[in-house]
Amino acid sequence: MRRSSFRIVAAVAAIALAVTGCSSSSDEAANEDTEFEIFTWWAFGGEAAGLQGMIDVYTAQNPNIEFINAAGAGAGVNAKAVLKSRLDANEPPDSFQAHVGMELDDYVRGGQLEDLTSLYVSEGWDKVFQADLIKTLTVDGKIYSVPVNIHRANVLWWNPATATKAGVTKAPETLDEFFADLEKFKKAGVTGLALAGKGDWAIAHLLDWMLLASMGADKFEGLYKGSTSWTGPEVATALKNFQKALAYGNKGAGNLDWPDAGKLVTSGKAGFFIMGDWASAQWQSDGLALGTDYTFAAAPGTVGVYQWLSDSFTLPVSAPHRNAAIAWLKVCGSQAGQDAFNPKKGSISARTDADLSKYDDYLKSASADWSKDRLVGSTVHGVNGNNAHMAAYSAAVGKYFSGGFKDNAGFAKDLAAAYEAGKA
Ligand code: GAL
Q1: What is the pLDDT of residue 76?
Q2: What residues flank ligand 1, with Cβ below 6 Å?
Q3: pLDDT reading at 325 higher than 90
């Protein structure tokens, strides 16, 4: 089962070594292990390309280790279920992907991860990682994973040619402007909003933005602190806006995953797409050009707010190839590893010393926004809620969406119950 996933054999190590110029004996202990398995949901396109960038650095440094990449697509929805069954059966991979925040907290509280604090000290990461990340990562004074990036969830993407055709001349900054532009697309015979309903999470991602855009950062954070009610007036307004936006979506969205929905925008069939910045990496891996084929802005109603998430790698308790895993984590935390990964993954580095000359104009602007914007966590990508909350939240959104987005009061109750499920 574990071996059915595709493998990257270290035979490419010599080439990668020449590319990176790294020494082949960076971690002597790792040489005792002959294989290493990671678990991610980066199986295709820009996501796979980003991961491969980091794998190349690893195989150059650890040429005798066979790299096994157990990847399953879909923003973690399926991957996390498979991971859970492996962890429950005490058959962990050597390292797995987990979002910084409450998602990671789940594994920490479950006693499933090793404490990596000493690695932070020996590698000097306590000084070079973004301070806000270190703060979120620290659980009772200890750190249990290595963040490889920071993604932005609240990004609006569109195709300049389609916008011009519809008379949309600038990025909508407010929800009112957004709805006015959706009308313009409609009049021009273009679907206003590209939706991906397969697996529920991308519609839940849209809701996460709409809640933030409709009620502002303080009230939004209150949803996860218990000070904003899920059945109160702020959520009711947000759900009305959500309902209104969904009505501008494409038909048949239930069959589309996010890369397919994104293609509606780049091919001129849809106006706007609200998606995390991995979309840009995906399009570039398809050969499209930023600025010409697609462009971006902060999602309407959230200008000046950075809704963030961060992917990190862990060391599970009982990892069969622990030394190989530690060598991997060292690559994950290194400047070389992060600068090989992030420009292709469409994210900014989790370190403060990234070589920005390797990053495109979108990522340079994201990097500037990260240091000046108000930071707010993503719900769908693990910051605000644990796995139980996220699963129930996405299921509630799926039910509402597949039911034709009609029953807002019932939806609010389901979202309130999802929040409670996270506390149970
Ligand atoms: C997120 C993940 C991103 C990207 C996205 C879409 O959960 O953090 O790195 O993979 O899913 O697949």
Answers
A1: 66
A2: 41-42, 47, 75-76, 99, 151, 276, 278, 309, 311, 381
A3: yes
